[in-house]
Design brief:
about 260 residues; alpha/beta; five-stranded mixed β-sheet; 9 helices; about 60% helix; about 10% strand
């Protein structure tokens, strides 16, 4: 005999999965926003950490590349950066790594190593700059015949009695330099980096403009600074001996109350 069809039982059996799914959806609606809210800060932290790591990696690679350019290790270049963040960076802003490390050397061996590296670097720099300077001079001669790239300031001729031309004091610094004097080149570069206005007097130039011009190019004197007279290039013509200050060159002097003194 057939069992009577029970509508209520059949409907409940079929409705149960629907109720379960509806309940799960309702729970998900409550739980999901909270879960996403908790996960978001973690994702942001991980993203920031990843960005920081990438930046650190790029910085490390940059330091390695810069160190290689100067013939240094990464540790040496890192020490240079640390030194430039201290008093040395205040005394000599913009100072190159080799000079900085040489001045702040911790031993005679370190000092000798940096000096040798700097000699090599300077030779490479000078060769490149001379090659470009020759090309620049040729271009200047074609475009502006008869005009010198770096002009030498005209100096008064000594009088008949042999009197030496006086040093003009107008508040500017004066620096006396000579050939075969690395400290002279370093001092001129330092003054130029500080954007000081100064008059350069070359001792032993024998009155040859080309002698001073060649030295100025090797020392990295910027032609634009000479053209604007921020820097003037002059023959010494006995001025240094006339001051009677004595001591080694380079000598940076300034007039104070009518008297010339080492600066």
């Amino acid at each position: 005999m057939l069992e009577p069809f029970n509508w209520s039982k059949r409907c409940i059996t079929r409705a149960t999965p629907t109720l379960v799914i509806s309940g799960m959806i309702a729970l998900w609606g409550v739980w999901a926003p909270q879960a996403l809210a908790e996960a978001q800060p973690s994702q942001e932290i991980r993203a920031r950490q990843s960005d920081t790591a990438i930046q650190g990696l790029h910085q490390a690679r940059s330091n390695e590349e810069q160190a290689r350019e100067w013939g240094l290790t990464s540790q040496e270049f890192s020490r240079y950066q640390t030194l430039m963040q201290g008093p040395r960076g205040v005394y000599s802003p913009g100072l190159d790594p080799l000079t900085t490390l040489g001045i702040e050397a911790r031993s005679a061996e370190e000092r000798r190593r940096y000096a040798e590296l700097q000699v090599q670097a300077e030779r490479q720099r000078v060769n490149k700059e001379l090659a470009y300077q020759r090309a620049y001079d040729e271009a200047n001669a074609r475009m502006f015949p008869g005009e010198k790239v770096i002009q030498i300031t005209s100096s008064p001729v000594p009088g008949a009695g042999g009197s030496k031309p006086a040093l003009q004091g107008d508040g500017r610094l004066a620096i006396f330099v000579k050939d075969d004097c690395p400290p002279c080149i370093a001092k001129v570069q330092d003054l130029q980096a500080q954007r000081q206005t100064f008059d350069l007097y070359f001792v032993g130039s024998q009155g040859e403009d080309e002698h001073i011009r060649r030295w100025a190019i090797l020392a990295g004197v910027e032609p634009k600074n000479v053209h604007s007279r921020q820097i003037t290039l002059n023959h010494d013509q006995g001025r240094w001996m006339g001051l009677g200050l004595g001591g080694d060159l380079p000598a940076v002097v300034r007039e104070v109350n009518g008297q010339w003194q080492r600066h």
